[in-house]
Protein backbone atom coordinates (compact mmCIF):
# COMPACT_ATOMS: atom_id res chain seq x y z
CA UNK A 1 0.00 0.00 0.00
CA UNK A 2 1.27 3.44 -0.92
CA UNK A 3 1.75 5.93 1.90
CA UNK A 4 -0.58 8.95 1.40
CA UNK A 5 0.99 12.30 0.63
CA UNK A 6 1.03 14.53 3.70
CA UNK A 7 -0.84 17.83 3.40
CA UNK A 8 1.20 21.01 2.98
CA UNK A 9 1.88 22.84 6.28
CA UNK A 10 -1.43 24.45 7.19
CA UNK A 11 0.01 27.29 9.27
CA UNK A 12 2.27 28.38 6.42
CA UNK A 13 -0.61 28.34 3.97
CA UNK A 14 -2.80 30.28 6.40
CA UNK A 15 -0.15 32.96 6.87
CA UNK A 16 0.15 33.27 3.12
CA UNK A 17 -3.61 33.82 2.83
CA UNK A 18 -3.66 36.31 5.69
CA UNK A 19 -0.94 38.32 3.97
CA UNK A 20 -3.31 38.85 1.05
CA UNK A 21 -6.22 40.70 2.60
CA UNK A 22 -8.00 40.90 -0.73
CA UNK A 23 -8.01 37.08 -0.96
CA UNK A 24 -8.81 36.06 2.60
CA UNK A 25 -12.55 36.80 2.50
CA UNK A 26 -12.80 34.79 -0.71
CA UNK A 27 -10.84 31.85 0.71
CA UNK A 28 -12.90 31.44 3.87
CA UNK A 29 -16.11 31.36 1.82
CA UNK A 30 -15.02 28.70 -0.68
CA UNK A 31 -17.55 25.83 -0.88
CA UNK A 32 -16.49 22.59 0.81
CA UNK A 33 -15.94 19.46 -1.29
CA UNK A 34 -18.17 16.41 -1.13
CA UNK A 35 -17.31 13.67 1.36
CA UNK A 36 -14.31 14.38 3.62
CA UNK A 37 -11.23 14.14 1.42
CA UNK A 38 -7.66 13.97 2.67
CA UNK A 39 -5.10 16.12 0.86
CA UNK A 40 -3.89 12.98 -0.89
CA UNK A 41 -7.25 12.84 -2.68
CA UNK A 42 -8.09 16.52 -2.79
CA UNK A 43 -4.98 17.26 -4.87
CA UNK A 44 -6.59 15.42 -7.79
CA UNK A 45 -9.78 17.48 -7.64
CA UNK A 46 -10.48 20.75 -9.41
CA UNK A 47 -10.71 23.66 -6.92
CA UNK A 48 -13.57 26.18 -7.11
CA UNK A 49 -13.21 28.69 -9.93
CA UNK A 50 -10.73 31.45 -9.22
CA UNK A 51 -8.95 29.65 -6.38
CA UNK A 52 -5.94 27.37 -5.96
CA UNK A 53 -5.78 23.95 -4.34
CA UNK A 54 -3.80 25.43 -1.45
CA UNK A 55 -6.43 28.12 -0.84
CA UNK A 56 -9.17 25.50 -0.97
CA UNK A 57 -7.28 23.40 1.56
CA UNK A 58 -6.95 26.40 3.92
CA UNK A 59 -10.70 26.97 3.70
CA UNK A 60 -11.40 23.28 4.40
CA UNK A 61 -9.03 23.15 7.36
CA UNK A 62 -10.49 26.28 8.91
CA UNK A 63 -13.99 24.81 8.79
CA UNK A 64 -12.84 21.48 10.15
CA UNK A 65 -10.85 23.05 12.96
CA UNK A 66 -13.77 25.19 14.09
CA UNK A 67 -16.09 22.18 14.22
CA UNK A 68 -13.75 19.66 15.84
CA UNK A 69 -13.39 18.50 19.45
CA UNK A 70 -10.44 16.82 21.13
CA UNK A 71 -10.43 13.44 22.92
CA UNK A 72 -8.06 12.11 25.60
CA UNK A 73 -6.04 10.09 23.07
CA UNK A 74 -2.71 11.80 22.32
CA UNK A 75 0.14 11.09 19.96
CA UNK A 76 3.76 10.63 21.03
CA UNK A 77 4.28 14.39 21.07
CA UNK A 78 1.37 14.82 23.50
CA UNK A 79 -0.93 16.37 20.86
CA UNK A 80 -4.60 15.36 21.16
CA UNK A 81 -6.56 13.60 18.49
CA UNK A 82 -9.66 15.44 17.35
CA UNK A 83 -12.86 14.68 15.45
CA UNK A 84 -15.74 16.48 13.80
CA UNK A 85 -19.21 15.35 12.72
CA UNK A 86 -19.72 16.46 9.11
CA UNK A 87 -23.15 16.01 7.55
CA UNK A 88 -22.29 12.71 5.92
CA UNK A 89 -21.32 11.22 9.32
CA UNK A 90 -24.49 12.50 10.97
CA UNK A 91 -26.53 10.94 8.18
CA UNK A 92 -24.74 7.61 8.68
CA UNK A 93 -25.27 7.80 12.45
CA UNK A 94 -28.99 8.28 11.94
CA UNK A 95 -29.16 5.18 9.75
CA UNK A 96 -27.17 3.17 12.28
CA UNK A 97 -29.41 4.36 15.12
CA UNK A 98 -32.53 3.36 13.21
CA UNK A 99 -31.12 0.14 11.79
CA UNK A 100 -29.31 -1.26 14.83
CA UNK A 101 -30.35 0.53 17.99
CA UNK A 102 -34.10 0.03 18.20
CA UNK A 103 -36.67 -2.54 17.23
CA UNK A 104 -38.61 -0.75 14.49
CA UNK A 105 -37.72 -2.22 11.11
CA UNK A 106 -35.74 -5.13 12.55
CA UNK A 107 -36.38 -8.28 10.48
CA UNK A 108 -38.79 -10.73 12.12
CA UNK A 109 -36.35 -13.69 12.00
CA UNK A 110 -34.04 -11.72 14.34
CA UNK A 111 -36.79 -11.08 16.91
CA UNK A 112 -38.24 -14.60 16.63
CA UNK A 113 -36.69 -16.72 19.44
CA UNK A 114 -37.01 -19.79 17.23
CA UNK A 115 -34.85 -18.42 14.42
CA UNK A 116 -32.62 -15.71 15.99
CA UNK A 117 -29.96 -18.19 17.14
CA UNK A 118 -29.44 -19.38 13.58
CA UNK A 119 -28.55 -15.84 12.49
CA UNK A 120 -26.50 -15.23 15.63
CA UNK A 121 -24.32 -18.28 15.01
CA UNK A 122 -23.93 -17.28 11.36
CA UNK A 123 -22.74 -13.81 12.39
CA UNK A 124 -20.30 -15.13 15.00
CA UNK A 125 -18.78 -17.52 12.47
CA UNK A 126 -18.64 -14.85 9.75
CA UNK A 127 -16.89 -12.32 12.01
CA UNK A 128 -14.50 -14.95 13.37
CA UNK A 129 -13.41 -15.97 9.87
CA UNK A 130 -13.15 -12.55 8.23
CA UNK A 131 -11.47 -10.84 11.21
CA UNK A 132 -8.82 -13.58 11.12
CA UNK A 133 -8.44 -13.28 7.35
CA UNK A 134 -7.71 -9.56 7.76
CA UNK A 135 -4.75 -10.62 9.93
CA UNK A 136 -3.47 -13.23 7.48
CA UNK A 137 -5.35 -16.41 8.36
CA UNK A 138 -5.49 -18.70 5.33
CA UNK A 139 -8.16 -21.38 5.20
CA UNK A 140 -11.38 -21.90 3.26
CA UNK A 141 -14.63 -20.65 4.68
CA UNK A 142 -16.24 -24.08 4.43
CA UNK A 143 -13.42 -25.75 6.35
CA UNK A 144 -13.59 -23.07 9.04
CA UNK A 145 -17.36 -23.38 9.37
CA UNK A 146 -17.08 -27.17 9.57
CA UNK A 147 -14.50 -26.87 12.37
CA UNK A 148 -16.70 -24.55 14.44
CA UNK A 149 -19.95 -26.41 13.87
CA UNK A 150 -18.51 -29.86 14.61
CA UNK A 151 -16.29 -28.75 17.47
CA UNK A 152 -13.18 -30.49 16.14
CA UNK A 153 -9.78 -29.13 17.26
CA UNK A 154 -7.97 -26.64 14.95
CA UNK A 155 -5.41 -28.20 12.62
CA UNK A 156 -3.15 -25.16 12.18
CA UNK A 157 -2.58 -21.56 13.32
CA UNK A 158 -5.09 -20.12 10.86
CA UNK A 159 -7.87 -22.34 12.19
CA UNK A 160 -6.80 -21.57 15.76
CA UNK A 161 -7.10 -17.82 15.03
CA UNK A 162 -10.61 -18.32 13.73
CA UNK A 163 -11.67 -20.47 16.68
CA UNK A 164 -10.20 -17.89 19.08
CA UNK A 165 -12.17 -15.10 17.43
CA UNK A 166 -15.35 -17.17 17.64
CA UNK A 167 -14.86 -17.83 21.36
CA UNK A 168 -13.99 -14.17 21.94
CA UNK A 169 -17.15 -12.93 20.21
CA UNK A 170 -19.23 -15.26 22.38
CA UNK A 171 -17.46 -13.96 25.46
CA UNK A 172 -18.08 -10.33 24.48
CA UNK A 173 -21.82 -11.01 24.39
CA UNK A 174 -21.57 -12.22 27.98
CA UNK A 175 -19.48 -9.20 29.08
CA UNK A 176 -21.44 -6.44 27.40
CA UNK A 177 -22.97 -5.16 30.64
CA UNK A 178 -19.60 -4.90 32.39
CA UNK A 179 -17.34 -1.88 32.45
CA UNK A 180 -14.16 -2.05 30.42
CA UNK A 181 -11.17 -2.49 32.72
CA UNK A 182 -7.50 -3.05 31.79
CA UNK A 183 -7.80 -6.61 33.09
CA UNK A 184 -10.73 -7.25 30.76
CA UNK A 185 -8.80 -5.92 27.75
CA UNK A 186 -5.90 -8.24 28.61
CA UNK A 187 -8.23 -11.22 29.00
CA UNK A 188 -9.82 -10.54 25.60
CA UNK A 189 -6.36 -10.37 24.04
CA UNK A 190 -5.51 -13.70 25.67
CA UNK A 191 -8.62 -15.26 24.15
CA UNK A 192 -7.83 -13.81 20.71
CA UNK A 193 -4.21 -14.97 20.63
CA UNK A 194 -4.23 -18.29 22.50
CA UNK A 195 -1.90 -20.82 20.81
CA UNK A 196 -1.18 -18.46 17.87
CA UNK A 197 1.87 -16.48 19.07
CA UNK A 198 5.51 -17.40 18.56
CA UNK A 199 6.05 -16.47 22.20
CA UNK A 200 3.11 -17.94 24.11
CA UNK A 201 3.88 -15.76 27.15
CA UNK A 202 2.93 -12.64 25.16
CA UNK A 203 -0.76 -13.56 25.24
CA UNK A 204 -2.74 -11.40 27.63
CA UNK A 205 0.03 -8.95 28.51
CA UNK A 206 1.32 -5.61 27.23
CA UNK A 207 4.43 -5.57 25.07
CA UNK A 208 7.70 -4.92 26.88
CA UNK A 209 10.33 -2.26 26.03
CA UNK A 210 12.47 -4.91 24.32
CA UNK A 211 9.53 -5.86 22.09
CA UNK A 212 9.41 -2.74 19.94
CA UNK A 213 6.85 -3.13 17.19
CA UNK A 214 6.17 -1.05 14.10
CA UNK A 215 3.40 -1.36 11.54
CA UNK A 216 4.81 -1.71 8.05
CA UNK A 217 4.78 -3.74 4.87
CA UNK A 218 6.93 -6.56 3.54
CA UNK A 219 9.23 -4.07 1.81
CA UNK A 220 10.37 -2.35 4.99
CA UNK A 221 8.20 0.77 4.75
CA UNK A 222 6.98 1.85 8.19
CA UNK A 223 3.42 3.18 8.35
CA UNK A 224 3.05 3.57 12.10
CA UNK A 225 5.34 3.55 15.12
CA UNK A 226 3.27 3.12 18.29
CA UNK A 227 3.95 4.75 21.66
CA UNK A 228 6.76 3.31 23.80
CA UNK A 229 5.97 0.35 26.01
CA UNK A 230 6.60 2.34 29.18
CA UNK A 231 3.53 4.48 28.46
CA UNK A 232 1.16 1.60 27.78
CA UNK A 233 -0.26 0.96 31.29
CA UNK A 234 -1.30 4.62 31.68
CA UNK A 235 -2.64 4.79 28.13
CA UNK A 236 -4.65 1.60 28.67
CA UNK A 237 -6.25 3.05 31.81
CA UNK A 238 -7.10 6.24 29.92
CA UNK A 239 -8.62 4.22 27.09
CA UNK A 240 -10.86 2.33 29.53
CA UNK A 241 -12.00 5.60 31.15
CA UNK A 242 -12.97 6.83 27.69
CA UNK A 243 -14.68 3.55 26.77
CA UNK A 244 -16.81 3.70 29.92
CA UNK A 245 -17.98 7.23 29.12
CA UNK A 246 -16.12 9.01 31.94
CA UNK A 247 -14.07 11.17 29.60
CA UNK A 248 -14.22 13.71 28.04
CA UNK A 249 -16.71 15.99 29.80
CA UNK A 250 -18.86 16.57 26.71
CA UNK A 251 -21.27 14.10 25.10
CA UNK A 252 -19.93 11.78 22.42
CA UNK A 253 -22.38 9.70 20.41
CA UNK A 254 -21.98 6.03 21.47
CA UNK A 255 -21.21 4.90 17.93
CA UNK A 256 -18.46 7.52 17.63
CA UNK A 257 -17.11 6.40 21.01
CA UNK A 258 -16.99 2.78 19.80
CA UNK A 259 -15.19 3.79 16.60
CA UNK A 260 -12.61 5.89 18.48
CA UNK A 261 -12.05 2.99 20.90
CA UNK A 262 -11.32 0.78 17.87
CA UNK A 263 -8.80 3.32 16.59
CA UNK A 264 -7.29 3.93 20.04
CA UNK A 265 -6.21 0.36 20.66
CA UNK A 266 -4.94 -0.02 17.10
CA UNK A 267 -2.94 3.22 17.46
CA UNK A 268 -1.37 2.30 20.81
CA UNK A 269 -0.60 -1.19 19.46
CA UNK A 270 -0.11 -2.44 23.01
CA UNK A 271 0.44 -6.10 22.19
CA UNK A 272 3.10 -8.08 20.39
CA UNK A 273 0.45 -9.42 18.01
CA UNK A 274 -3.34 -9.59 17.73
CA UNK A 275 -3.89 -5.83 17.99
CA UNK A 276 -6.29 -5.61 15.04
CA UNK A 277 -8.44 -8.49 16.25
CA UNK A 278 -8.51 -7.10 19.79
CA UNK A 279 -9.41 -3.61 18.51
CA UNK A 280 -12.37 -5.00 16.57
CA UNK A 281 -13.41 -7.06 19.61
CA UNK A 282 -13.46 -3.90 21.72
CA UNK A 283 -15.55 -2.18 19.07
CA UNK A 284 -18.16 -4.94 19.39
CA UNK A 285 -18.06 -4.72 23.20
CA UNK A 286 -18.72 -0.97 22.98
CA UNK A 287 -21.59 -1.29 20.51
CA UNK A 288 -23.33 -3.93 22.62
CA UNK A 289 -22.52 -2.10 25.86
CA UNK A 290 -24.19 1.06 24.58
CA UNK A 291 -27.33 -0.75 23.46
CA UNK A 292 -26.77 -1.49 19.77
CA UNK A 293 -27.91 -5.07 20.22
CA UNK A 294 -28.28 -5.83 16.52
CA UNK A 295 -24.47 -5.85 16.25
CA UNK A 296 -24.55 -9.34 17.73
CA UNK A 297 -25.78 -10.31 14.26
CA UNK A 298 -23.50 -8.07 12.17
CA UNK A 299 -19.99 -8.67 10.82
CA UNK A 300 -18.01 -5.52 10.11
CA UNK A 301 -14.89 -7.52 9.20
CA UNK A 302 -16.79 -9.03 6.28
CA UNK A 303 -17.04 -5.52 4.81
CA UNK A 304 -13.50 -4.52 5.77
CA UNK A 305 -12.10 -7.64 4.10
CA UNK A 306 -13.54 -6.53 0.75
CA UNK A 307 -11.48 -3.30 0.85
CA UNK A 308 -8.60 -3.83 3.31
CA UNK A 309 -6.54 -1.01 1.76
CA UNK A 310 -9.31 1.51 2.50
CA UNK A 311 -9.38 0.30 6.11
CA UNK A 312 -5.61 0.78 6.47
CA UNK A 313 -5.66 4.10 4.61
CA UNK A 314 -8.23 5.58 7.00
CA UNK A 315 -5.72 5.09 9.83
CA UNK A 316 -2.99 6.77 7.79
CA UNK A 317 -5.18 9.71 6.78
CA UNK A 318 -5.82 10.40 10.46
CA UNK A 319 -2.15 10.24 11.43
CA UNK A 320 -0.90 12.35 8.53
CA UNK A 321 -3.40 15.20 8.93
CA UNK A 322 -3.12 16.68 12.41
CA UNK A 323 -4.59 13.65 14.22
CA UNK A 324 -7.98 14.14 12.57
CA UNK A 325 -10.03 11.08 13.61
CA UNK A 326 -12.84 12.11 11.29
CA UNK A 327 -11.23 10.19 8.41
CA UNK A 328 -11.46 6.95 10.36
CA UNK A 329 -14.96 7.80 11.59
CA UNK A 330 -16.19 8.48 8.05
CA UNK A 331 -14.78 5.16 6.83
CA UNK A 332 -16.15 3.14 9.75
CA UNK A 333 -19.67 4.58 9.73
CA UNK A 334 -19.87 3.64 6.03
CA UNK A 335 -18.72 0.12 6.87
CA UNK A 336 -21.30 -0.18 9.65
CA UNK A 337 -24.14 1.02 7.44
CA UNK A 338 -23.15 -1.43 4.71
CA UNK A 339 -22.94 -4.26 7.24
CA UNK A 340 -26.46 -3.49 8.48
CA UNK A 341 -27.72 -3.42 4.88
CA UNK A 342 -26.05 -6.76 4.16
CA UNK A 343 -27.72 -8.35 7.18
CA UNK A 344 -31.15 -7.12 6.08
CA UNK A 345 -30.44 -8.32 2.53
CA UNK A 346 -29.29 -11.75 3.75
CA UNK A 347 -32.37 -12.24 5.91
CA UNK A 348 -34.68 -11.13 3.10
CA UNK A 349 -32.93 -13.57 0.78
CA UNK A 350 -33.31 -16.46 3.22
CA UNK A 351 -36.94 -15.56 3.87
CA UNK A 352 -37.64 -15.60 0.13
CA UNK A 353 -35.91 -18.97 -0.18
CA UNK A 354 -38.20 -20.45 2.48
CA UNK A 355 -41.22 -18.97 0.74
CA UNK A 356 -40.13 -20.45 -2.60
CA UNK A 357 -39.65 -23.87 -1.04
CA UNK A 358 -43.14 -23.71 0.44
CA UNK A 359 -44.61 -22.78 -2.95
CA UNK A 360 -42.73 -25.56 -4.71
CA UNK A 361 -43.89 -28.09 -2.11
CA UNK A 362 -47.48 -27.22 -2.88
CA UNK A 363 -46.91 -27.28 -6.65
CA UNK A 364 -45.07 -30.62 -6.75
CA UNK A 365 -47.34 -32.35 -4.24
CA UNK A 366 -44.36 -34.20 -2.73
CA UNK A 367 -46.05 -34.52 0.65
CA UNK A 368 -49.60 -34.90 1.87
CA UNK A 369 -51.27 -31.84 3.34
CA UNK A 370 -50.48 -32.85 6.93
CA UNK A 371 -46.78 -33.28 6.18
CA UNK A 372 -46.71 -30.01 4.22
CA UNK A 373 -48.21 -28.18 7.22
CA UNK A 374 -45.53 -29.61 9.49
CA UNK A 375 -42.75 -28.61 7.07
CA UNK A 376 -44.04 -25.05 6.85
CA UNK A 377 -44.07 -24.91 10.63
CA UNK A 378 -40.57 -26.41 10.85
CA UNK A 379 -39.14 -23.86 8.41
CA UNK A 380 -40.25 -21.07 10.72
CA UNK A 381 -39.44 -22.90 13.98
CA UNK A 382 -36.12 -24.71 13.43
CA UNK A 383 -35.70 -25.58 17.14
CA UNK A 384 -39.05 -27.31 17.33
CA UNK A 385 -39.36 -31.00 18.15
CA UNK A 386 -42.29 -33.14 17.05
CA UNK A 387 -43.75 -36.35 18.36
CA UNK A 388 -46.32 -38.77 17.06
CA UNK A 389 -48.71 -37.56 19.76
CA UNK A 390 -48.20 -33.85 18.89
CA UNK A 391 -48.67 -34.49 15.17
CA UNK A 392 -51.74 -36.62 15.90
CA UNK A 393 -53.26 -33.82 17.96
CA UNK A 394 -52.35 -31.02 15.50
CA UNK A 395 -53.83 -32.85 12.52
CA UNK A 396 -56.67 -34.59 14.33
CA UNK A 397 -55.76 -38.03 12.97
CA UNK A 398 -55.37 -41.49 14.48
CA UNK A 399 -52.05 -42.60 15.97
CA UNK A 400 -51.10 -44.85 13.05
CA UNK A 401 -51.64 -42.06 10.48
CA UNK A 402 -49.48 -39.64 12.48
CA UNK A 403 -46.78 -42.30 12.90
CA UNK A 404 -46.77 -43.07 9.17
CA UNK A 405 -46.46 -39.35 8.28
CA UNK A 406 -43.45 -38.79 10.54
CA UNK A 407 -41.61 -42.00 9.71
CA UNK A 408 -42.02 -41.26 5.99
CA UNK A 409 -40.53 -37.79 6.50
CA UNK A 410 -37.69 -39.32 8.51
CA UNK A 411 -37.01 -41.83 5.72
CA UNK A 412 -36.83 -39.03 3.16
CA UNK A 413 -34.42 -37.02 5.30
CA UNK A 414 -36.81 -34.19 6.08
CA UNK A 415 -36.81 -34.91 9.81
CA UNK A 416 -34.24 -36.29 12.20
CA UNK A 417 -35.10 -38.79 14.92
CA UNK A 418 -33.79 -39.51 18.41
CA UNK A 419 -34.93 -41.07 21.65
CA UNK A 420 -35.62 -39.15 24.82
CA UNK A 421 -36.11 -41.79 27.45
CA UNK A 422 -38.80 -44.04 26.05
CA UNK A 423 -40.21 -41.32 23.84
CA UNK A 424 -39.26 -40.86 20.16
CA UNK A 425 -38.91 -37.25 19.05
CA UNK A 426 -38.47 -35.92 15.52
CA UNK A 427 -36.14 -32.94 15.02
CA UNK A 428 -35.64 -30.31 12.31
CA UNK A 429 -32.35 -30.69 10.37
CA UNK A 430 -30.19 -27.56 10.23
CA UNK A 431 -30.16 -27.74 6.41
CA UNK A 432 -33.88 -28.43 5.95
CA UNK A 433 -34.21 -25.95 3.07
CA UNK A 434 -31.34 -27.58 1.14
CA UNK A 435 -32.78 -31.07 1.71
CA UNK A 436 -36.16 -30.00 0.39
CA UNK A 437 -34.51 -28.53 -2.70
CA UNK A 438 -32.74 -31.83 -3.37
CA UNK A 439 -36.06 -33.66 -3.12
CA UNK A 440 -37.60 -31.14 -5.49
CA UNK A 441 -34.75 -31.65 -7.98
CA UNK A 442 -35.18 -35.42 -7.92
CA UNK A 443 -38.96 -35.09 -8.35
CA UNK A 444 -38.53 -32.81 -11.36
CA UNK A 445 -36.00 -35.19 -12.91
CA UNK A 446 -38.35 -38.14 -12.45
CA UNK A 447 -41.20 -36.20 -14.01
CA UNK A 448 -39.25 -35.26 -17.13
Please explain how this structure is put together.
There is one protein chain. With 448 residues, this protein is mostly helical. It folds into three domains: 10-67; 70-347, Fido-like domain (Fic-like fold, Orthogonal Bundle); 368-447, Arc Repressor Mutant, subunit A, CATH 1.10.10.10. It is 59% helix and 6% strand. It contains 20 helices and seven strands. It has helices at 10-18, 21-28, 39-42, 53-67, 87-100, 108-111, 113-134, 141-150, 157-175, 182-193, 232-243, 254-268, 275-289, 300-304, 308-320, 326-364, 369-380, 388-395, 399-411, 432-447, and strands at 69-74, 80-83, 215-216, 222-224, 385-386, 416-420, 423-427. Strand 3 (215-216) and strand 4 (222-224) form a beta hairpin. It starts with 9 loop residues before the first helix and ends with a helix.
